[in-house]
Amino acid sequence: MSVIEKLTKPAHQIKMEDIIREGNPTLRASAQEVDLPLSEQDIILGEKMLEFLKNSQDPVLGPKMGLRAGVGLAAPQLDVSRRIIAVLLPNPEDADGNPPQEAYALREVMYNPKVVAHSVQEAALMDGEGCLSVDREVPGYVIRHARVTVDYWNKEGQKKRIKLKGYEAIVVQHEIDHINGIMFYDRINEKDPFEQKEGLLLLK
Ligand SMILES: [Zn+2]
Questions:
Q1: Is 118 annotated as a binding residue?
Q2: How far is the centre of ligand 1, averaged over its atoms, from the C-alpha of 125 (Å)?
Q3: pLDDT tens digits, one per residue of 184-200
Q4: Is 174 annotated as a binding residue?
Q5: Residue 112, Ramachandran bin (φ over 0: left; ψ between -120 and 50: alpha; else beta)
Q6: What's 44's domain CATH number?
Q7: pLDDT band at 39 (very low <50, low <70, confident <90, very high)
Q8: Residue 93: what pLDDT?
Q9: Structural domain of residue 155, as residue ranges?
Q10: Number of domains composing the chain
Q11: Cα 160 to middle of ligand 1, angstroms
């Protein structure tokens, strides 16, 4: 049975052991575009990826299933070299600790996503980035575009164009990097990981 057949079986839930780690060549490959209209298999894989993220963020299920909390996952991280990413970004509680009106700022599976335009300004997360495929801390500013326009197809097969900034833009760029064989630490200045580049927007 192929990896994708196993992952898309009805009873299968994606777990940490399905996620490949740095050193695996699939993470360094440029992934294949998915065919349109989308296959049933690609749609199911996307749903499973989103479900994994949801489980990983669940305060009860996450630890029970031994999951590291994540906000994004790309198919190559499952050893499936296809251009599919899932992002699940929860909105924060309000100042009084009440749940947000909209649970998620971004909840989407993107097929063949592509950055079609970006700002000149760069941005980085103040605390650096992590990755479910990297079992170690790699400190430093991961230099990315502050704002991006992304084209993709959704699971209904509709072409979408979204403009992103802030944390959402960072996460989507991290996941799109995965389908291009790029790891987050490739974008850290090796000689000066916390270099204060002029105009760099640091995000909390
Ligand atoms: Zn990653």
A1: no
A2: 14
A3: 999 999 999 999 999 99
A4: yes
A5: left
A6: 3.90.45.10
A7: very high
A8: 86
A9: 3-203
A10: 1
A11: 23
